[in-house]
Amino acid sequence: MCHKSKDQTGVSIKISKFIVVSTIVTLLSSISFLIFDYFVPMDISATKDISRVVKSSDESWLYAQTNSSDKWRFGIDIEEIDPHYIDMLLAFEDRNFYSHYGVDILAMLRAISQLIANQRVVSGGSTITMQLARLLKPKPRTISSKLIEMVNALQLELHYSKKEILSAYLTLTPYGGNVEGLVAASMRYFGKLPDRLTASQSALLVALPQSPERNRPDRYLSDATKARDRVLKMAYDRGLINGYEYNLSISQRASSKIYRFPRYAPHLSSKILFENNISREISTTLDISIQKELEVWAKGKSYLLPKDTTMAMVVAENSNSSIVAYLGSHDRFSSSVSGFVDMVRSIRSPGSTLKPFIYALAFDKHLIHPYSIIIDKESRFGDYMPHNFSNRYSGEVTVAYALQHSLNIPAVKILHRVGVGDFVDRLEGVVGRVYIPKDRATLPIALGGLGLSLWQLTQLYVTLANYGVSSPLHYLPSIGGQKLLRFCDAKSAKMTTAILRELQPPDGFVNRNGRIAYKTGTSYGYRDNWTIAYSSDYTIAVWVGKPNNATQSQFTGRSMAAPLAFEAFSILDNLKPISDWSWRSSFLSHTPPKALRYFSKREYLEDRDRLKFVYPRADSRYRSAGCSKTLVDIKIDRGKRPYYWYIDNLPMDINRSYTTLPFDYGSHTITVIDSRGEKISRDIWIDRPEC
Known about the structure:
One of its GO terms (cellular component) is outer membrane-bounded periplasmic space. The chain is of the alpha+beta class. It contains 20 helices and 22 strands. α4 packs across α6, α12 runs antiparallel to α19 and α13 (355-364) packs across α15 (408-418). The chain is elongated, with a radius of gyration of 38 Å.
């Protein structure tokens, strides 16, 4: 029988003691670690404090907002990052990322040996997990801090997956200034998301965090290029890129250009972010290409606008009532025009823009036909006596003519017949509450005597374009398709649209095939200039005015807002071709039913004998056939002789109902007074002779 020697026994005892002690130390360390982890936990909740993004209908970035610390930091999805960047990052920063548990002992030993051999830092020993720990809990760079980072790294590895750790690291990594995270850096330095990066771009994004300020390409381009090239060399040596990619990338200097984070549709985007303070990314119905073009165009139009004046615009798609573009002002950041005020939502006087809806409701109630005869003359309604904008009256006109020429007296007459209360109820059934002074709706609302917003007017005209019904306007896809809003029947809406399609376009524009129906409006004191134009596909609503509600100098909806609306339609047509209406605007019969031949037959009979012009028509324009004065035929009818004629306020020796007179170029006023004192006037324009 063999016996172990005393030496062997002693060694065995020592080994056993070592194992016991090691086990106890390990157990105590583990318990201490778990206790430490319990009372001093590591979490990555800082990654939730990220910037917020509003997106367009195609998921492009429309508007970005900094986080609560005023930093650009966006959430990240590893699956949406260029995999070549991930490979390059791990090869450069942490080759054993997927195999270690937060601390890479071999990497640390290698870093120490390289430091001793080269007397400088050649490579770092910190893993990505350790770097994340330092980002979450910044500390001075000391040996004790490094030990704490190692413990923190173990904590992170205990509670989070590798994907979560890498995602958190790529969210918090600094890239210079207030830019943090891969997404923010890619948007800042390349103007794009990091889903498809070139080798050069990937290398720069890997190199930047090594020294975020010193390697910034917008400030230190040479240093940034050198840092990028070191990463490219590493990637080439390790077979991550081929020789062609390496040579191509190394031959190109890094760019010093930086990109602004998108700030399109600022008024609407700010409203969306304020109303939804939970979601980090919010999709909208806005079309980014249309929004961009209109913002650039609107800012370029600022030189046309009077001092302290701005414009607002809404573009809506008629078929689904979705908002395509939204401009709260022509320049959000201009303090001189209070650009921060969202004029789309401001309550203003609509001027004449509600007249089409008065007519549509009268059509709906079978009170008038587009070719019913109505008398445009000075009229009194109790203590209310409106006047036409021009202070001139046309006498016997059709309903269609009255709407096309925005005559005030016929509109008030028709509203009086329709009923003010019923009209307001129909309006509010579509647009919600409107502002009515003293909550008492009266006839002046026909001419703008109430308050509503550009948003509400857009809703009304979308309803008109959709043959009397529409869903509520919306800019969030989730809200679309709600209940239908009804203003009038389809035939009444079609009649109204047919009349508005026949309007002459603003000077310098062509309305091919009557594709665009539109109505202008001007409020009292020229404070508000409106034009709402619509095709079968889109509605464009334009407002021009001063946010402080000051008066403007003789600008009207037709002279100021209408050209802008037609220009906007031209831009829209280039991006999204506008369709023709499926029906001709001339579909209406010119012969109304017998019962609707006259709006008021009694008034018509009374007016039959009133003095009136046969020709020229109001605001006629003449072109000279030669170098001499232009001859104009003038004829009046009815009234009571003798007649007294005046040309430009000068009396003429004419006592008959027909004459021909020569006129120089320019503006002229023809006035005739009969023996009963009835007075009528006509303005004409003579073009300058071309000789």
